[in-house]
């Protein structure tokens, strides 16, 4: 594809090289002058600007010219005409000769006038300067000025801080009044709101987030959502995995208990749902996230993006708007812009630089033995199949028999040095490479405009063998027919594909094996992963049943291809000056095919590997119309609109694969035919749904200072029972511009108060009303049907989300300082929760029902400013902050708890109890002395063997974390000096926790660096009473909740004791008390277990094992600061560009997503605290478990990128 | 005006699209409409799921508790009673799901006015509720399965009432099946994987279950049990029982997909730490069977791959695999052994505190003997949990298959009925104890394909009937292989077999007597559960459950708290 891009580049260069020909040849007889000029235009590449009236009464001309300059040609053909010309940039301006003035000698002209702002308010202090002269004047307190100009055709330049500079040519007029527009007045910006309607922001009664397209592509991102991070308040973006993984976007906290809280995306009027549920698994332990739908969107095609945060803003989009709406407007040709070619190319290298670190002190093994600990003459052995634990110390010059040393020796019993390989992770990964090339052509005139574009993106992942590719084709056009009819269309075609996407979770996840590679072995020994002479048959392994990470990376292939077409056709008719009508039909259609090939050699698929093929299609069609009437009466302006929409969607899914573990008939034949019938897993399903809607809305304005919006909508959904199918919801919002009502002085530019209240109704997914039987796998030839374990409620009601928001937008010092603040409260009630667990003794283990009240409440602040602004320097800074709390207020009678996820093997779960905040993580509770008067208060209560005891997390309801941050903050800075600009975006997440299953497993394996540094209490070698006294004096080390620490260490020097079996000095024990009981088992007192009595000192590895049941030790703080974007751009000067006939060119270098700081300090990215799973436990269908991480430990990268933009 | 026309055209199109009926759109094309199904399609589900739910435990964890097998990897819940409320969530859920399907089958049977499916539903309902009462004690019964009537949180009924209810159901089933066998519409005999539509056998199954549950109650409510049993035994024509191996309630796994495959199969899994590989024979059963030269041992277990052989003439640290010649009952045999010196053996004994086992044929792991390195049992070269151990008996190789003739879910065996009848006779409630004891052994051997070994086995040491309950129950325990839940319930009520060896790994000093109420009830049905918990009797072992500061009553939810059935019986401990 790179070659293709290169070819395109060359051909464009040729096109533009043809344009600026300096010489023209004309040979025409008796033609209108316009034809001659047109010929000059064609040959020279200059554009002509003129008033057509000038040519009305001219006689035809004859011109014979050969190889003359443009100037000569023009001089020649205009010499006998009442016309003259000037050449400005690349424009030839034709104007009438004014003989009267042209022959008058230069004389001074006295010019006076008044300078006002857009509100007709006089601006004092405006500098009025004559271009290219030293003369200037300043406006007085009434805004008037007087200046003497030496002759006509001079240019006056009006400039004032905070306003756009304006130039006026002095003709023969003596009075020039000027209206200066505010330079930095984002509050008056036009934003695209619901249904694509453009509104002035000041008129909105609710907060919207908006991002200009150029801010999204300044630093290229594969998924457009990553470009939003840190830029808009109220929005949380999480990249759940490596490039190409789903990116989660949650606006104002997730209040839905049924879904994944992803907003609705509307691209040029085409609704596109983007969920986190595209995880597909073929074979055992091979769940792959194929990325969410929004990743098909090409950031380069985006003109602007508006984030409608709450139902107030989104009420018109109906049911799916509950989680907010992202309205995306793509680029199109501009009216009268002329032909234009935009080229953009960029390349990013993702250089891995920080890795999860393991302990590098001990090789695997159950005990950290040294040659001194064993019988003299014994050879230390490090069996290849022992991959966990703390064994022989590394890098101490000890020898042991190990795997494959010396390399490929036949005799494995030759002892070799036990050496650590701390750089295994680093040596395994690649530098990632992403390259994006795009070209677009656009043009526009009065009658039509168009834009066509092509973009190609290729990515080679950090994990060897992984890739991602995308081609975008876009075509947009608008045509006018007659005066009042406009027809437009916009069609996009996207191909996304990969030959190999990495798997998550545990199984084929390469990183799992990279990080679990014993640290006495150099991972590169596995790089040539076929056994020599047995290529394609036998994999080099550590031991039988172990997996080779290079093999998994290169040979387990999870490929996909997604073809997506979306677009719309739209007709608009201006029936009367005040009445317009619009009809639109839009469609989004994708076809996705996933194909997994697992050859023989993966331990999870021992029977000749595995194969699977899945096809998913999705079709959505929306037809809508809108009729609009706008008018004004005296001070009032109003727009009243009414419209309707019909949404129809159909999804199909077919998949065929081998049953996990059961494999194929013969290896390396990847077709469904190669799966024995009894080993074939197959399924098919399809579903459809429709929603019909009618809506109306009114926008009322009074004297540009009071704005009121009212909306009303009624939906009819096919998924709800007949009686509840129809649901109505209204909204109202108000905007007050106080600065327009009261004079607040010159320092205050704007004071806006706003507020709104809105409702959104929601339906559910298809087929939720009536139960059907499940077909189980047959028993031999006997059919097995079963009653569904999920209870269906035939009289489901629609959901109802009510939101209230208040806010203010302030501007000071000509809006060089701005502030936006919003308080919001969202109550989402009557939710249709699917698969809520209920007592299975009731006959169903889960139910669908209406229940719950979830409240999301929070604040959003944005402070913006332009601290520096001068001719050469400009610095704008924008800081936003969001704090959101999502609380479960109510559930149904008899139900007090709602599961989010439950990872049985990880010992942790997330659920939410009534009254608590969503996002809590629960773990078992250690049993401790709870009597505050006891001298042992807080001490762990141990069992008779000296082990910790626990109460299950469900019964104890023992909260150990919450995965939502306390607040998030983003900062954007744009500093420019002349043609250079430096852009920075920072993102700070404060608070919250995540559960690292990687850390937990490696800790249990004895290789976590953090565990041996933080969990063992080094009592300085004290023993007996000295030890127990010291522990009692320092009981804070082990008495606080969720601190699970033992006394001891891996060696004598690190606090270890001589272990009970006398093998090594790695003895350790759990400090605490053992209860004494009477005959009935009641506790009568405690025996100290503090090192003074009969404590059994177990090897340290054993302590990690016994604390396996306390996963809270691996719950880590999620705080971090990331540099989301940094770029330095140089715009080439116009003068230089003119020489090479280029309209614009910029070069930039950039970097992105650099982790600056984490509180946890384990080199795991807290943002990636997601586990991909195909089980939608808890909240059904959510395939991303938030708040937990399981070998989702790609190294942190230092991206280095360069980008070139050229416009012809 | 042309444009008006275009707009009108679009609007018309919109209206046409909208005419599609919203109702029609919401008919599920993917599921099976219950109205087109017949009860036989539910029958297979109920039988197979009921059988496999109990077999999973009876061949699994309870087999560990009953010291027939042990595991040497991730064994806390298996060998050591390391249970908690989440451990048996799945069992509870499955049993109630089976009941729900059984209830649905009753609904379809009523719709079709079909007595066979009515009776089958009553019998399967009794089977599942019986196990619920057996495992937990009090449980939702009268209000259970009634969510469709608006009861989402069913109350707990007294354990006795559940037993009484199922006995009534079984009585009713027997009555429903008392017509001429040919007069029933069984729809499709292939769907009846238990009896292929044989009405008489279903009737035997119902009455044999009655015997089982009356006997269960006999220690607690002797007169109730005695009256029922004597009534059944007094009318053998009216109450036929399972007395022949061919009639027992057992069905074979068909292995045509994972859910119909034997639970420890390793099809699709060559991982050496599979369920099959980590499961080893337990010394308690192995030694008991070796005492009697039990032929069934060869059907259930593999011989040790490489016996250990101590050769004190060798150097202390000698350790080598070589042929050794043995004289076995006068015959000279060459066996490949791992020959070790005394030092190797002594080091092992010192480290683990158990003797080295030099058996040449079968060796079992001691029950819950240690928590550390079980996989190293008997000087095993294994270095990781759950791997094959050449010095300990693995399960018979057939248990790694998906299907085999002997891989059956054994819901109720003829041997069990005969052992029950022997016990009843011993109580003096009628019958011949010796005859039933011998019939029990005979049918058990028949059931395992060892009919010809019966005469020989009956004269082995310790086998001839000695007129004790201990002998009956011990033999019954052996015969319960792969269906040990019943052995557990017998042990609870009789204290036999008298398991003495409880190793250091066990969570408590004694074997548990019930399962924990599941986490699902603790969270989703907490109020009703808390009302039932005081009915459990605390014991000195249940007192060792961690104190729960929030809900002290939850502490009673212990595997060592006594349910009504055991209260006041002084059994098993």
Describe the protein in words:
The complex is a heterodimer of chains A (1208) and B (573). Chain A has 1208 residues and is mainly beta. Chain A is elongated. Chain A has 17 helices and 67 strands. The longest helix of chain A has 17 residues, at 2-18. In chain A, a hairpin with an 8-residue loop joins β43 (817-837) and β44 (846-869). In chain A, the strands form 17 sheets. Chain A has a 22-stranded antiparallel beta barrel. Chain A has a 5-stranded mixed sheet with strand order 15-22-23-18-19. In chain A, strands 8-7-10-11 form a 4-stranded antiparallel sheet, with no helix packed on it. Chain B is built from 21 helices and 9 strands. Chain B has helices spanning 2-18, 22-25, 39-58, 61-65, 76-79, 89-112, 115-136, 159-176, 199-217, 222-234, 275-278, 283-291, 296-300, 342-352, 414-426, 433-447, 454-458, 469-479, 485-494, 519-524, 526-532; strands at residues 69-71, 139-140, 156-157, 249-252, 279-281, 308-310, 319-328, 331-340, 408-412. The N and C termini of chain B lie far apart (98 Å). At the A-B interface, β31, β32, β33, β34 and β35 of A face α1, α2, α3, α6 and β2 of B.
Indicate the radius of gyration of chain A in whole angstroms: 36 Å
Poorly predicted ranges of chain B (pLDDT <50, ≥5 residues)?
A: none
What's the main sheet of chain A like?
A: 22 strands, antiparallel, barrel
Structural class of chain B: mainly alpha
Helix content of chain A: under 10%
Task: Estimate the strand proportion of chain B.
Answer: 5-15%
Shape of chain B: globular
Helix content of chain B: 40-55%
First-residue to last-residue Cα separation of chain B: 98 Å
Name the assembly state.
Answer: heterodimer
* Strand line-up across the major sheet of chain B: 6-8-7
Uncertain stretches of chain A: 1-21, 99-105
Structural class of chain A: mainly beta
**Count, helices of chain A:** 17
Distance between the termini of chain A: 23 Å
Count of beta strands of chain A:
67
Taken from the alpha-carbon principal axes, the silhouette of chain A is elongated
Number of E-state strands of chain B? 9
The largest chain-to-chain contact, stated as pair and per-chain residue counts, equals:
A-B, 106 and 101 residues
């Amino acid at each position: 594809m790179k070659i293709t891009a290169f070819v395109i580049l060359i051909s464009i260069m040729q096109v533009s090289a043809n344009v600026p020909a300096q010489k023209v040849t004309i040979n025409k007889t008796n033609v209108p002058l316009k034809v001659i000029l047109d010929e000059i235009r064609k040959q020279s590449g200059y554009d002509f600007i003129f008033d057509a009236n000038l040519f009305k009464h001219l006689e035809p001309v004859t011109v014979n010219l050969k190889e003359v300059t443009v100037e000569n040609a023009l001089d020649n053909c205009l010499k006998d005409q009442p016309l003259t010309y000037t050449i400005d940039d690349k424009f030839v301006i034709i104007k009438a000769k004014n003989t009267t003035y042209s022959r008058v000698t230069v004389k001074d002209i006295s010019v006076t006038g008044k300078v006002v702002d857009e509100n007709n308010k006089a601006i004092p202090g405006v500098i009025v300067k004559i271009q290219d002269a030293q003369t200037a004047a300043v406006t007085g307190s009434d805004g008037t000025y007087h200046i003497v100009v030496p002759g006509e055709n001079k240019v006056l330049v009006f400039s004032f801080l905070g306003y756009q500079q304006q130039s006026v040519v002095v003709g023969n007029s003596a009075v020039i009044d000027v209206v200066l527009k505010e330079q930095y007045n984002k509050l008056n910006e036009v934003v695209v709101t619901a249904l694509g309607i453009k509104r002035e922001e000041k008129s909105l009664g609710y907060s919207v987030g908006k991002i200009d397209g150029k801010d999204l592509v300044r630093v290229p991102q594969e998924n457009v959502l990553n470009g939003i991070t840190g830029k808009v308040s109220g929005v949380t973006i999480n990249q759940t995995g490596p490039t190409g993984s789903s990116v989660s976007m949650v606006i104002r906290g997730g209040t839905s208990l049924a879904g994944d809280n992803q907003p609705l995306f509307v691209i040029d009027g085409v609704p596109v749902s983007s969920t986190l549920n595209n995880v597909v698994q073929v074979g055992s332990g091979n769940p792959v996230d194929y990325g969410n739908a929004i990743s098909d969107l090409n950031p380069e095609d985006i003109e602007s993006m508006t984030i409608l945060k709450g139902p107030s803003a989104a009420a018109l989009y109906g049911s799916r708007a509950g989680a907010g709406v992202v309205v995306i407007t793509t680029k199109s040709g501009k009216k009268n812009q002329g032909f234009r070619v935009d080229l953009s190319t960029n390349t990013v290298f993702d250089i891995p630089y920080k890795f999860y670190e393991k302990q590098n002190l001990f090789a695997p093994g159950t005990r950290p033995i040294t040659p001194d600990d064993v019988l003299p003459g014994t050879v230390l052995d490090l069996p290849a199949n022992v991959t966990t634990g703390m064994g022989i110390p590394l890098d101490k010059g000890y020898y042991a028999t190990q795997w494959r040393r010396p390399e490929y020796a036949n005799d494995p019993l030759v002892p070799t040095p036990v050496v650590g390989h701390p750089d295994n992770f680093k040596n395994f990964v690649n530098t990632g490479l992403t390259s994006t090339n795009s070209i677009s052509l656009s043009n526009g005139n009065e009658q039509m405009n168009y834009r066509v574009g092509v973009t190609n993106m290729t990515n080679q992942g950090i994990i060897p063998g992984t890739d991602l590719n995308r081609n975008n084709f876009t075509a947009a056009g608008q045509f006018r027919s007659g005066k009042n009819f406009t027809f437009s269309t916009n069609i996009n075609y996207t191909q996304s594909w990969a030959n190999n996407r990495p798997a998550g979770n545990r199984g084929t996840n390469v990183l799992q094996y990279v990080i679990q590679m014993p640290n006495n072995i150099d991972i590169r020994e596995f790089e040539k992963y076929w056994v020599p002479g047995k290529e394609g048959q036998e994999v080099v392994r550590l031991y039988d049943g172990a997996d080779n990470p290079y093999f998994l990376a290169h040979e387990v292939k999870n490929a996909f291809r997604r073809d997506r077409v979306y677009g719309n056709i739209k007709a608009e008719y201006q029936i009367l000056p005040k009445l317009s009508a619009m009809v639109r039909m839009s469609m989004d259609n994708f076809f996705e095919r996933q194909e997994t090939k697992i050859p023989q050699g993966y331990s999870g698929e021992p029977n000749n590997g595995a194969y699977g093929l899945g096809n998913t299609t999705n079709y959505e069609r929306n037809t809508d119309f809108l009729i609009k009437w706008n008018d004004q009466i005296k001070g009032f302006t109003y727009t009243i609109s009414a419209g309707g929409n019909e949404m129809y969607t159909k999804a199909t899914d077919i998949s065929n694969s081998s049953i996990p573990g059961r494999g194929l008939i013969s290896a390396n034949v990847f077709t469904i035919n190669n799966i024995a019938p009894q080993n074939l897993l197959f399924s098919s399903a399809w579903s459809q749904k429709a929603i019909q809607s009618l809506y109306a809305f009114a926008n009322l304005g009074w004297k540009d200072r009071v704005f009121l919006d009212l909306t009303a909508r009624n939906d009819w959904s096919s998924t709800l029972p007949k009686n509840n199918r129809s649901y109505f919801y209204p909204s109202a919002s108000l905007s007050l511009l106080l600065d327009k009502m009261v004079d607040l002085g010159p320092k205050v530019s704007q004071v806006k108060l706003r507020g709104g209240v809105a409702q959104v109704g929601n339906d559910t997914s298809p087929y939720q009303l009536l139960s059907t039987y499940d077909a189980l796998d047959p028993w031999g030839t006997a059919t097995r049907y079963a009653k569904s374990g999920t209870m269906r409620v035939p009289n489901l009601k629609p959901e109802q989300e009510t939101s209230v928001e208040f806010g203010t937008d302030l501007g000071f010092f000509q809006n060089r300082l701005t502030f936006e603040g919003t308080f919001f409260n969202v109550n989402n009630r009557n939710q249709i929760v699917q698969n809520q667990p209920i007592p299975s003794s009731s006959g169903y283990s889960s139910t669908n029902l209406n229940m719950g009240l979830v409240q999301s409440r929070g604040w959003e602040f944005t402070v913006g400013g332009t601290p520096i602004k001068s001719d050469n320097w400009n610095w704008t800074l924008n800081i936003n902050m969001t704090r959101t709390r999502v609380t479960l207020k109510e559930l149904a009678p008899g139900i007090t708890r709602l599961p989010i996820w439950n990872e049985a093997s990880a010992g942790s779960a997330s659920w939410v109890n009534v009254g608590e905040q969503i996002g809590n993580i629960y773990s078992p509770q250690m049993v401790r002395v709870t009597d505050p008067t006891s001298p042992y208060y807080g001490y762990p209560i141990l069992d008779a063997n000296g082990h910790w005891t626990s109460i299950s997390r469900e019964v104890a309801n023992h909260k150990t974390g919450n995965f939502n941050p306390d607040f998030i903050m983003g900062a954007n800075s744009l500093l420019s000096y002349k043609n250079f600009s430096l852009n920075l975006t920072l993102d700070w997440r404060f608070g919250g926790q995540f559960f690292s299953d990687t850390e937990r497993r490696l800790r249990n394996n004895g290789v976590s660096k953090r565990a041996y540094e933080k969990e063992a209490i080094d009592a300085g070698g004290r023993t007996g009473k000295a030890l127990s006294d010291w522990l009692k004096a320092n009981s804070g080390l082990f008495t606080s909740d969720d601190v699970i620490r033992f006394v001891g260490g891996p060696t004598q020097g690190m606090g270890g004791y001589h272990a009970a079996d006398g093998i090594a000095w790695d003895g350790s024990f759990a400090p605490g008390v053992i209860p004494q009981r009477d005959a009935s088992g009641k506790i009568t007192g405690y025996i100290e277990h503090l090192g003074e009595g009969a404590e059994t000192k177990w090897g340290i590895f054993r302590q990690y094992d016994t604390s396996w049941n306390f996963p809270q030790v691996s719950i880590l703080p999620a705080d971090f600061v990331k540099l989301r974007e940094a770029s330095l751009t140089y715009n080439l000067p116009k003068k230089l560009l003119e020489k090479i006939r280029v309209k614009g060119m910029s070069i930039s270098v950039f970097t992105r997503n650099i982790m600056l700081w984490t509180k946890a300090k384990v080199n795991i990215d807290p943002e990636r605290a997601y586990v991909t799973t195909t089980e939608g436990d808890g909240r059904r269908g959510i395939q991303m478990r938030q708040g937990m991480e399981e070998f989702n430990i790609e190294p942190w990268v230092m991206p280095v990128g360069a980008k070139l933009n050229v416009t012809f | 005006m042309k444009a008006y026309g275009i707009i009108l055209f679009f609007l018309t199109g919109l209206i046409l699209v909208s005419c599609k009926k919203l109702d029609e759109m919401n008919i599920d094309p993917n599921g099976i409409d219950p109205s087109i199904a017949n009860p036989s399609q539910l029958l297979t589900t109920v039988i197979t799921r009921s059988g496999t739910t109990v077999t999973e435990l009876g061949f699994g964890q309870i087999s560990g508790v009953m010291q027939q097998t042990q595991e040497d990897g991730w064994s806390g819940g298996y060998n050591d009673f390391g249970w908690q409320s989440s451990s048996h969530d799945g069992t509870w859920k499955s049993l109630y799901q089976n009941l729900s399907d059984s209830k649905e089958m009753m609904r379809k049977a009523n719709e079709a006015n079909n007595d066979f499916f009515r009776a089958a539903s009553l019998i399967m309902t009794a089977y599942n509720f019986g196990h619920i009462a057996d495992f937990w004690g009090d449980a939702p019964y009268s209000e259970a399965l009634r969510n469709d009537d608006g009861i989402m949180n069913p109350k707990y009924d007294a354990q006795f009432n559940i037993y009484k209810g199922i006995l009534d159901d079984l009585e009713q089933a027997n009555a429903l099946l008392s017509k001429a066998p040919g007069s029933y519409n069984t729809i499709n005999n292939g769907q009846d994987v238990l009896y292929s539509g044989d009405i008489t056998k279903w009737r035997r199954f119902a009455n044999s279950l009655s015997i089982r549950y009356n006997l269960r109650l006999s220690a607690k409510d002797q007169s109730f049990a005695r009256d029922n049993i004597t009534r059944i035994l007094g009318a053998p024509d009216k109450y036929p029982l399972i007395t022949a191996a061919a009639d027992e309630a057992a069905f074979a796994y068909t292995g045509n997909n994972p859910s119909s495959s034997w639970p420890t199969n390793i099809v699709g899994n060559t991982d050496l730490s599979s369920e099959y590989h980590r499961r080893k024979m337990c010394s308690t059963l192995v030694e008991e069977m070796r005492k009697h030269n039990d032929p069934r041992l060869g059907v259930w277990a593999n011989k040790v791959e490489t016996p250990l052989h101590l050769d004190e003439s060798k150097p202390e640290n000698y350790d080598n695999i070589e042929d050794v010649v043995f004289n076995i009952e006068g015959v000279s045999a060459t066996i490949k052994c791992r020959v070790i010196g005394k030092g190797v053996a002594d080091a092992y004994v010192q480290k683990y505190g158990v003797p080295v086992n030099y058996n040449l044929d079968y060796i079992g792991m001691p029950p819950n003997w240690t928590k550390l390195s079980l996989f190293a049992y008997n000087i095993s070269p294994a270095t990781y949990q759950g791997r094959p151990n050449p010095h300990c008996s693995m399960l018979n190789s057939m248990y790694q298959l998906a299907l085999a003739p002997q891989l059956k879910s054994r819901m109720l065996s003829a041997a069990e009925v005969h052992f029950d009848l022997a016990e009843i006779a011993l109580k003096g409630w009628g019958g011949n104890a010796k005859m039933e004891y011998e019939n029990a052994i005979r049918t058990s051997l028949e059931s395992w394909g060892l009919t010809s070994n019966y005469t020989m086995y009956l004269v082995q040491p310790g086998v001839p009937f000695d007129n004790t309950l201990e002998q009956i129950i011990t033999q019954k325990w052996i015969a319960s292989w792969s269906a040990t839940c019943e052995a557990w319930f017998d042990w609870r009520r009789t204290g036999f077999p008298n398991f003495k060896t409880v190793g250091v790994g066990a969570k408590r000093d004694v074997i548990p007597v019930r399962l924990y109420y599941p986490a699902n009830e603790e969270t989703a049905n907490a109020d009703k559960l808390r009302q039932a918990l005081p009915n459990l009797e605390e014991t000195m072992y249940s007192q060792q459950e961690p104190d729960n500061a929030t809900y002290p009553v939850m502490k009673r939810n212990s595997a060592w708290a006594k349910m009504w059935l055991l209260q006041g019986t002084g059994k098993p401990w």
